[in-house]
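Structural prep section.
Before we set up the soaks we want a predicted structure of the protein with pyridoxal-5'-phosphate in place, mainly to decide which crystallisation condition to try first. Input record follows.
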Amino acid sequence: MSVSLRASLVHAAMEQFTVDRGELVVGGERLSLLAARVGQTPFYAYDRSLLRERVASLRAALPKGIKLHYAMKANPMPAVVSFMAGLVDGIDVASGGELKVALDAGADAAEISFAGPGKRDPELRQAVASRVLVNLESPREVDVLAAASADFGVAARVAVRVNPDFELKGSGMKMGGGPKQFGVDVEQMPQLMASIRHAGLAFEGFHLFAGSQNLRAESICEAQLKSYELALRLAEYTSMPVRFLNLGGGFGVPYFPGEQRLDLAPIGDNLQRLLQRARSEMPEVAFVIELGRYMVAEAGVYVTRVVDRKISRGQVYLVTDGGLNHHLSAAGNFGQVVRKNYPVTIGNRQGGQATEIASVVGPLCTPLDLLADRMQLPVAAIGDLAVVFQSGAYGASASPQAFLGHASCPEVLV
Ligand SMILES: *Cc1c(COP(=O)(O)O)cnc(C)c1O
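Run finished without errors. Recording the tokens verbatim:
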């Protein structure tokens, strides 16, 4: 087998956690002690120092004029949101419930923005009363916001989320281009901008979000450039100055074999060029990049204990006390996609012991409850701790925790 083929079969190195006495160290603590401190398995743990380093590395790679927002749906744990609120320039929320968590976390309302395709009337009123920026996604929202503005005597702050006429190439999830439930089609913008003006809403700018989980810097740069140029075109529909331009995010993290970490350097250069252009073309604009998983995924682990070790017709099964019910994406999203393994290891056997091919399965009575399918792992025994890396985003809150009636999974920020 060629070297490149071989490379395509391995996970990116998970070197963010150090090792002490053969155990992974998370939040400065050996995993077995952390498990004892939590008082049970399974659990999620998020490492504060890694979150801090991640935001610092983004700031180092991107130009100073770029505001960094945390899209909190990636990890809405209140302690995480509070911690992130102290590191980033703003929080992006996608529901009234998230808005409450962000405000409780102490995030500055002036720097919170609220996007989502089906905002209910009470959520929109909540946003106006809180003085946060609403990323408008439909003409209906203009009417509801106008009524709330009149009732409260507070002009609703709005940016328009635009459904662009292009897609983000190579992204895991496309959220713009073609027909979409998100945002307002470019074609409908002249009319919408006029109705915002008539309604007397406080227009601030545009929001473009082309897609998610992209590991190709050149596609992200292309989407940013196209988004910028689209915003320039749209600015012609209004006499109101464009003060806010959210260029989306989409920065991915490596989950599966063969995936490499995103190179931020070309993205930083690209944004620098756009900032330079904006000085003459949109002088009042502030650029925002909104990131969810890129900020938090690599700082988190899901930890589950081996409760049984079985051999079926020669294949080793490590049966753990948690799985699909707590970590749907690592299990493969109910079998709807071609399943690939997340990076998994045995967290208390990092000393270079013998390895074997084993599958890690959860306790649920379904073959879909699979955390690792025939992976090369340190030889594990009952009581060991199986660890799923890259688990700081879309884990606990994005999993069917009530499925099969097991206890829900605690989360700790350490
Ligand atoms: C989900 C979402 C994000 C975050 O996506 P990630 O892939 O976690 O970075 C950002 N912006 C919007 C509008 C979203 O819906």
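Observations: The first strand starts at residue 19 and ends at 20.
Flagged for discussion at group meeting.
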